[in-house]
Write a sequence for this structure.
Protein backbone atom coordinates (compact mmCIF):
# COMPACT_ATOMS: atom_id res chain seq x y z
CA UNK A 1 0.00 0.00 0.00
CA UNK A 2 2.87 2.39 0.82
CA UNK A 3 4.40 1.73 -2.58
CA UNK A 4 1.14 2.58 -4.37
CA UNK A 5 0.75 5.91 -2.58
CA UNK A 6 4.42 6.75 -3.06
CA UNK A 7 4.10 6.06 -6.79
CA UNK A 8 1.02 8.29 -7.01
CA UNK A 9 2.76 11.20 -5.31
CA UNK A 10 5.87 10.87 -7.43
CA UNK A 11 3.80 10.55 -10.61
CA UNK A 12 2.21 13.95 -10.05
CA UNK A 13 5.59 15.48 -9.30
CA UNK A 14 7.25 14.26 -12.46
CA UNK A 15 4.44 14.14 -15.05
CA UNK A 16 4.76 17.12 -17.31
CA UNK A 17 8.53 17.51 -16.84
CA UNK A 18 10.44 18.25 -20.02
CA UNK A 19 13.86 19.27 -21.13
CA UNK A 20 12.77 22.87 -21.67
CA UNK A 21 9.69 25.06 -21.96
CA UNK A 22 8.10 26.68 -24.96
CA UNK A 23 7.62 25.77 -28.57
CA UNK A 24 8.77 26.63 -32.06
CA UNK A 25 11.44 29.29 -31.94
CA UNK A 26 15.16 29.78 -31.52
CA UNK A 27 16.77 27.88 -28.69
CA UNK A 28 19.24 29.45 -26.30
CA UNK A 29 22.90 28.82 -25.69
CA UNK A 30 25.20 27.14 -28.19
CA UNK A 31 22.22 25.88 -30.21
CA UNK A 32 20.64 29.33 -30.61
CA UNK A 33 20.62 28.93 -34.36
CA UNK A 34 18.29 25.92 -34.15
CA UNK A 35 14.52 26.02 -34.29
CA UNK A 36 12.82 24.25 -31.40
CA UNK A 37 9.97 21.79 -31.88
CA UNK A 38 8.12 20.36 -28.86
CA UNK A 39 6.33 17.01 -29.09
CA UNK A 40 3.71 16.07 -26.48
CA UNK A 41 2.49 12.66 -25.33
CA UNK A 42 1.18 10.74 -22.30
CA UNK A 43 3.09 8.12 -20.24
CA UNK A 44 0.82 5.25 -21.26
CA UNK A 45 1.01 2.44 -23.79
CA UNK A 46 -1.36 4.08 -26.27
CA UNK A 47 1.46 6.59 -26.78
CA UNK A 48 4.32 4.18 -27.47
CA UNK A 49 4.95 5.59 -30.99
CA UNK A 50 6.06 8.89 -29.43
CA UNK A 51 8.34 7.07 -26.99
CA UNK A 52 9.91 5.02 -29.78
CA UNK A 53 10.37 8.04 -32.04
CA UNK A 54 11.97 9.89 -29.14
CA UNK A 55 14.32 7.04 -28.21
CA UNK A 56 15.39 6.34 -31.79
CA UNK A 57 15.79 9.99 -32.74
CA UNK A 58 13.27 9.80 -35.58
CA UNK A 59 12.00 13.35 -35.16
CA UNK A 60 15.55 14.70 -35.16
CA UNK A 61 16.36 12.62 -38.22
CA UNK A 62 13.34 13.78 -40.20
CA UNK A 63 13.39 17.43 -39.13
CA UNK A 64 17.11 17.83 -39.78
CA UNK A 65 20.12 19.37 -38.04
CA UNK A 66 18.56 22.82 -37.95
CA UNK A 67 15.93 21.69 -35.44
CA UNK A 68 16.13 20.97 -31.72
CA UNK A 69 13.41 18.55 -30.58
CA UNK A 70 12.08 18.55 -27.03
CA UNK A 71 9.37 16.45 -25.38
CA UNK A 72 6.64 17.14 -22.84
CA UNK A 73 4.37 14.62 -21.13
CA UNK A 74 0.80 15.17 -19.95
CA UNK A 75 -1.55 13.44 -17.47
CA UNK A 76 -4.73 14.10 -19.48
CA UNK A 77 -6.14 15.39 -22.75
CA UNK A 78 -7.32 18.71 -21.32
CA UNK A 79 -3.83 19.86 -20.35
CA UNK A 80 -2.43 18.58 -23.65
CA UNK A 81 -4.98 20.53 -25.70
CA UNK A 82 -4.35 23.66 -23.66
CA UNK A 83 -0.64 23.36 -24.48
CA UNK A 84 -1.40 22.89 -28.18
CA UNK A 85 -3.71 25.91 -28.25
CA UNK A 86 -1.21 28.14 -26.44
CA UNK A 87 1.67 26.98 -28.63
CA UNK A 88 3.60 25.28 -25.82
CA UNK A 89 3.77 22.17 -28.00
CA UNK A 90 3.84 21.86 -31.78
CA UNK A 91 2.38 18.38 -32.24
CA UNK A 92 1.85 15.16 -30.34
CA UNK A 93 -0.36 12.27 -29.34
CA UNK A 94 -3.72 12.68 -27.61
CA UNK A 95 -6.98 10.76 -27.42
CA UNK A 96 -9.55 11.53 -30.13
CA UNK A 97 -12.06 12.69 -27.49
CA UNK A 98 -10.15 15.82 -26.39
CA UNK A 99 -9.23 16.61 -30.00
CA UNK A 100 -12.89 16.43 -31.08
CA UNK A 101 -14.25 18.29 -28.06
CA UNK A 102 -11.81 21.16 -28.55
CA UNK A 103 -12.43 21.26 -32.29
CA UNK A 104 -16.15 21.65 -31.60
CA UNK A 105 -15.47 24.64 -29.36
CA UNK A 106 -13.39 26.37 -32.02
CA UNK A 107 -9.87 25.11 -31.33
CA UNK A 108 -7.48 25.14 -34.27
CA UNK A 109 -6.61 21.43 -34.28
CA UNK A 110 -6.06 18.84 -36.99
CA UNK A 111 -5.80 15.06 -36.68
CA UNK A 112 -2.93 14.28 -39.06
CA UNK A 113 -2.40 10.55 -38.34
CA UNK A 114 -3.55 7.67 -36.19
CA UNK A 115 -1.33 6.15 -33.50
CA UNK A 116 -2.99 3.29 -31.64
CA UNK A 117 -6.25 1.41 -31.13
CA UNK A 118 -7.69 -0.42 -28.14
CA UNK A 119 -6.32 -0.29 -24.63
CA UNK A 120 -9.46 0.79 -22.70
CA UNK A 121 -10.40 -1.73 -19.99
CA UNK A 122 -13.17 -1.58 -17.38
CA UNK A 123 -12.41 -3.24 -14.03
CA UNK A 124 -14.19 -3.60 -10.68
CA UNK A 125 -12.74 -4.11 -7.22
CA UNK A 126 -13.52 -7.28 -5.33
CA UNK A 127 -15.17 -5.43 -2.42
CA UNK A 128 -17.49 -3.52 -4.77
CA UNK A 129 -19.69 -6.56 -5.25
CA UNK A 130 -19.82 -5.86 -8.98
CA UNK A 131 -19.68 -9.11 -10.93
CA UNK A 132 -21.13 -7.98 -14.26
CA UNK A 133 -22.69 -5.03 -16.06
CA UNK A 134 -25.99 -5.97 -14.39
CA UNK A 135 -24.50 -4.79 -11.08
CA UNK A 136 -23.46 -1.31 -12.27
CA UNK A 137 -26.63 0.54 -11.20
CA UNK A 138 -25.90 2.88 -8.30
CA UNK A 139 -22.16 2.23 -8.36
CA UNK A 140 -19.32 4.72 -8.90
CA UNK A 141 -16.89 4.72 -11.81
CA UNK A 142 -13.76 6.72 -12.56
CA UNK A 143 -12.29 7.92 -15.87
CA UNK A 144 -9.39 10.31 -16.56
CA UNK A 145 -11.72 13.24 -17.41
CA UNK A 146 -15.32 14.09 -18.26
CA UNK A 147 -15.88 13.47 -21.96
CA UNK A 148 -12.44 11.97 -22.51
CA UNK A 149 -12.04 9.10 -24.96
CA UNK A 150 -12.36 6.43 -22.27
CA UNK A 151 -15.36 8.14 -20.69
CA UNK A 152 -17.27 8.28 -23.99
CA UNK A 153 -16.42 4.65 -24.72
CA UNK A 154 -17.74 3.34 -21.41
CA UNK A 155 -20.79 5.63 -21.26
CA UNK A 156 -21.74 4.56 -24.80
CA UNK A 157 -21.46 0.94 -23.71
CA UNK A 158 -23.52 1.59 -20.58
CA UNK A 159 -26.24 3.41 -22.49
CA UNK A 160 -26.52 0.47 -24.87
CA UNK A 161 -27.23 -1.64 -21.76
CA UNK A 162 -29.81 0.78 -20.33
CA UNK A 163 -27.47 2.34 -17.77
CA UNK A 164 -26.55 6.03 -17.45
CA UNK A 165 -24.40 8.27 -15.29
CA UNK A 166 -25.92 10.81 -12.93
CA UNK A 167 -24.76 13.53 -15.33
CA UNK A 168 -27.54 12.59 -17.77
CA UNK A 169 -30.15 11.40 -15.32
CA UNK A 170 -28.89 7.93 -14.41
CA UNK A 171 -27.74 6.41 -11.13
CA UNK A 172 -24.01 5.86 -11.62
CA UNK A 173 -21.73 8.34 -9.89
CA UNK A 174 -18.89 9.53 -12.13
CA UNK A 175 -15.59 10.80 -10.73
CA UNK A 176 -12.36 11.68 -12.49
CA UNK A 177 -8.71 11.21 -11.65
CA UNK A 178 -5.27 10.26 -12.84
CA UNK A 179 -5.03 6.57 -13.86
CA UNK A 180 -1.97 6.24 -11.63
CA UNK A 181 -4.34 6.59 -8.65
CA UNK A 182 -6.83 3.95 -9.68
CA UNK A 183 -5.31 0.95 -7.91
CA UNK A 184 -5.25 2.79 -4.59
CA UNK A 185 -8.78 4.15 -5.07
CA UNK A 186 -10.20 0.73 -5.86
CA UNK A 187 -8.43 -0.81 -2.86
CA UNK A 188 -9.67 1.90 -0.50
CA UNK A 189 -13.23 1.65 -1.77
CA UNK A 190 -13.33 5.26 -3.00
CA UNK A 191 -14.59 3.97 -6.35
CA UNK A 192 -16.17 0.71 -7.44
CA UNK A 193 -15.24 0.63 -11.12
CA UNK A 194 -12.22 1.95 -13.02
CA UNK A 195 -12.11 2.72 -16.75
CA UNK A 196 -8.38 2.47 -17.32
CA UNK A 197 -6.05 2.93 -20.28
CA UNK A 198 -3.08 0.62 -20.52
CA UNK A 199 -0.70 -0.01 -18.86
CA UNK A 200 -2.69 1.05 -15.81
CA UNK A 201 -5.34 -1.64 -16.33
CA UNK A 202 -2.64 -4.33 -16.16
CA UNK A 203 -1.11 -2.62 -13.09
CA UNK A 204 -4.53 -2.61 -11.39
CA UNK A 205 -4.98 -6.31 -12.10
CA UNK A 206 -1.55 -7.15 -10.73
CA UNK A 207 -1.74 -4.99 -7.61
CA UNK A 208 -5.39 -5.34 -6.60
CA UNK A 209 -6.76 -8.48 -8.19
CA UNK A 210 -9.59 -6.43 -9.70
CA UNK A 211 -11.78 -8.25 -12.20
CA UNK A 212 -12.00 -7.23 -15.85
CA UNK A 213 -15.68 -6.66 -16.60
CA UNK A 214 -15.44 -5.12 -20.08
CA UNK A 215 -12.31 -5.90 -22.07
CA UNK A 216 -10.62 -3.72 -24.68
CA UNK A 217 -12.39 -5.45 -27.57
CA UNK A 218 -15.82 -5.38 -25.88
CA UNK A 219 -16.10 -1.74 -24.84
CA UNK A 220 -17.76 0.53 -27.40
CA UNK A 221 -15.49 1.48 -30.32
CA UNK A 222 -12.81 -0.74 -28.83
CA UNK A 223 -11.88 -2.38 -32.15
CA UNK A 224 -12.19 0.58 -34.52
CA UNK A 225 -11.63 3.88 -32.76
CA UNK A 226 -8.12 5.38 -32.64
CA UNK A 227 -7.16 5.30 -28.97
CA UNK A 228 -4.62 8.00 -29.69
CA UNK A 229 -4.05 10.27 -32.67
CA UNK A 230 -1.27 12.55 -33.87
CA UNK A 231 -2.42 16.17 -33.92
CA UNK A 232 -1.08 19.59 -34.81
CA UNK A 233 -2.59 23.03 -35.23
CA UNK A 234 -4.32 23.93 -38.45
CA UNK A 235 -2.05 26.95 -38.69
CA UNK A 236 1.04 24.73 -38.68
CA UNK A 237 -0.47 22.43 -41.29
CA UNK A 238 -1.16 25.40 -43.56
CA UNK A 239 2.00 27.41 -42.98
CA UNK A 240 4.57 24.63 -42.44
CA UNK A 241 3.44 21.56 -44.42
CA UNK A 242 7.02 20.34 -44.91
CA UNK A 243 7.62 20.37 -41.17
CA UNK A 244 4.35 18.55 -40.53
CA UNK A 245 5.25 15.98 -43.17
CA UNK A 246 8.58 15.38 -41.40
CA UNK A 247 6.80 14.92 -38.05
CA UNK A 248 4.36 12.45 -39.61
CA UNK A 249 7.19 10.59 -41.37
CA UNK A 250 8.99 10.19 -38.04
CA UNK A 251 5.76 8.96 -36.50
CA UNK A 252 5.32 6.43 -39.31
CA UNK A 253 8.88 5.20 -38.76
CA UNK A 254 8.08 4.63 -35.09
CA UNK A 255 4.88 2.74 -35.87
CA UNK A 256 6.71 0.48 -38.32
CA UNK A 257 9.50 -0.10 -35.78
CA UNK A 258 6.95 -1.26 -33.19
CA UNK A 259 5.52 -3.80 -35.64
CA UNK A 260 8.95 -5.13 -36.57
CA UNK A 261 10.59 -4.98 -33.12
CA UNK A 262 7.91 -5.47 -30.44
CA UNK A 263 10.28 -6.65 -27.72
CA UNK A 264 12.63 -3.72 -28.18
CA UNK A 265 9.64 -1.36 -28.28
CA UNK A 266 8.51 -2.79 -24.94
CA UNK A 267 11.94 -2.10 -23.44
CA UNK A 268 11.76 1.49 -24.67
CA UNK A 269 8.28 1.82 -23.16
CA UNK A 270 9.36 0.53 -19.77
CA UNK A 271 12.35 2.88 -19.75
CA UNK A 272 10.39 5.95 -20.87
CA UNK A 273 7.54 5.47 -18.38
CA UNK A 274 10.09 4.97 -15.59
CA UNK A 275 11.90 8.19 -16.55
CA UNK A 276 8.61 10.12 -16.58
CA UNK A 277 6.75 8.64 -13.62
CA UNK A 278 9.58 6.98 -11.62
CA UNK A 279 7.51 3.78 -11.75
CA UNK A 280 9.18 0.77 -13.33
CA UNK A 281 6.58 -1.47 -14.92
CA UNK A 282 7.26 -5.18 -14.90
CA UNK A 283 7.71 -7.01 -18.18
CA UNK A 284 4.65 -9.08 -17.22
CA UNK A 285 2.48 -5.97 -16.96
CA UNK A 286 3.70 -4.59 -20.28
CA UNK A 287 3.22 -7.94 -22.03
CA UNK A 288 -0.36 -8.12 -20.75
CA UNK A 289 -1.10 -4.52 -21.73
CA UNK A 290 0.50 -4.97 -25.16
CA UNK A 291 -2.03 -7.65 -26.07
CA UNK A 292 -4.81 -5.05 -25.77
CA UNK A 293 -3.20 -2.44 -28.03
CA UNK A 294 -2.76 -2.07 -31.78
CA UNK A 295 -0.49 0.47 -33.45
CA UNK A 296 -1.27 2.15 -36.79
CA UNK A 297 -0.75 5.55 -38.37
CA UNK A 298 -3.95 5.16 -40.39
CA UNK A 299 -7.14 6.92 -39.28
CA UNK A 300 -10.62 5.37 -39.48
CA UNK A 301 -12.65 8.50 -40.24
CA UNK A 302 -15.97 6.65 -40.02
CA UNK A 303 -15.13 5.40 -36.52
CA UNK A 304 -14.17 8.91 -35.42
CA UNK A 305 -17.48 10.28 -36.70
CA UNK A 306 -19.48 7.51 -35.01
CA UNK A 307 -17.65 8.19 -31.76
CA UNK A 308 -18.41 11.90 -32.10
CA UNK A 309 -22.09 11.23 -32.78
CA UNK A 310 -22.21 9.22 -29.56
CA UNK A 311 -20.48 12.06 -27.69
CA UNK A 312 -23.28 14.34 -28.86
CA UNK A 313 -26.00 11.86 -27.86
CA UNK A 314 -24.39 11.59 -24.42
CA UNK A 315 -24.46 15.42 -24.16
CA UNK A 316 -20.70 15.86 -24.06
CA UNK A 317 -21.06 18.00 -27.19
CA UNK A 318 -23.66 20.75 -27.57
CA UNK A 319 -23.85 20.53 -31.35
CA UNK A 320 -24.05 17.55 -33.68
CA UNK A 321 -20.51 17.25 -35.00
CA UNK A 322 -19.25 17.25 -38.55
CA UNK A 323 -15.58 16.52 -38.92
CA UNK A 324 -14.98 17.35 -42.55
CA UNK A 325 -12.11 19.67 -41.60
CA UNK A 326 -10.83 17.94 -38.46
CA UNK A 327 -9.06 14.99 -40.09
CA UNK A 328 -6.33 15.77 -42.62
CA UNK A 329 -4.86 12.62 -44.17
CA UNK A 330 -2.69 14.28 -46.83
CA UNK A 331 0.47 13.45 -44.89
CA UNK A 332 -0.20 9.70 -44.61
CA UNK A 333 -1.87 9.00 -47.99
Amino acid sequence: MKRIFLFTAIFFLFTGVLAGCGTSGKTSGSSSDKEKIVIGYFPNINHVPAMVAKDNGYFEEQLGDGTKVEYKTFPDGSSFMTALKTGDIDAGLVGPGPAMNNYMTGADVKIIAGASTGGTVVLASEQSGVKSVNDFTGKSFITPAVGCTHDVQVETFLKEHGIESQRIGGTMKHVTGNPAQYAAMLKSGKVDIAVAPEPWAAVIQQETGAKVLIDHDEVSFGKTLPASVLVASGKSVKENPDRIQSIVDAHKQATEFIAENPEEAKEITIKDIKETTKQELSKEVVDQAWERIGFTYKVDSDAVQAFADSSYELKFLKEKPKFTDLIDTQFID
Q: What stands out?
A: The first strand starts at residue 35 and ends at 41. The mean pLDDT is 89.
